[in-house]
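Team,

Forwarding the record for the chain on the shared tracking sheet. I've put the sequence and predicted structure together so nobody has to dig through attachments.
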Amino acid sequence: MKSKDERFFTQSITLSIFALALLIGLAYLLRGVLAPVLFAFLLAYAFDPFVEILCRRHVSRSVASSICLLFLLVLGSGLLALILPTVQAEVNILLKNMPIYIEKIQTSVLPWIENTFDLTLPKTLQEALNALRQNLPNVSSDMAKPLAGLLKTILSSTMSLLASLVYLVIIPLFTYYFLRDFPRIIHWFGELIPIRFREKSTSIFGELNSVLAGFIRGQLTVCAILALFYSICLSLVGVPAGLTIGILAGLFNLVPYLGTITGIALSFSFLLLEGGQPLAYLLVLLVFIGASILDGLLITPKVLGEKLGLAPVAVILAVLAFGEIFGFTGILLAVPVTALGKVILTHALKAYRNSRMYTQTPPPAEE
């Protein structure tokens, strides 16, 4: 007959696997609809502490949620208004210079690769570059249009336009409702847990919330700080499209090391095509090395505090795996599901090691 610990262990594992499989199945079936709703929930989850601060100052939950949403909209619009014109100008300059870049690749870079590494590159590569040069004027004229014209080109079909408008309405709307009803949502899900598992589950979800809250809020803050640092430093160094590269490097820092690799690769590529001086390459390396040191010693410890229990390798593998299966929605779900699995697995292993199945020793052999 199974002990209480063994039964609890078996039931916990079965329930956890079933719930995880159900969530993954639903996420796959609803992946198209789920992305804006999930994004809205993540925004509400990240900014719920600000609503709680206002509520503690005797502001109603609805008013506090409205204030927080208004702040998000103003902040997002302000950042776009400040950044988009500069990014658009940098992209236009890059597109204008692209024929020169392609010619340099054909006349200098490819021959250098062939001579240095004793390789014979396929002719199709040269043909592809020639085709790209011929088509660039059309691409450049489209990209050089004002932002409104560019958006109109992207959203040319009626269905795409309607879908985009729906997304623009859904995200703020759902963010407001998630912010306003966040405690009730958590309570509702808590009430679904069987009473006999509720105390243990509360402890597990408390740990999960601690990990996710620290990761999401802290990592977004770290990415914003690094994006600002990269953009300013790369622009001062004279890297072409330094602001754009800095923003991309900061955003890609959500995946460990990807931001640094992307930033260095893009900076070096454009410096090479622009004929940058050796000192510029050295300064770019110093920027990213300095950012890594500051991030490791100061930014991440101050913002994220203690270790969150999610190893960089686990985050990379999760993002790659979930992105391959579910696309953009999978990238959003990767870290939460990985943290959920880690917390559940930790408690399952603890229950297993405390069970008779694990601790019971075999009876002594009869002589």
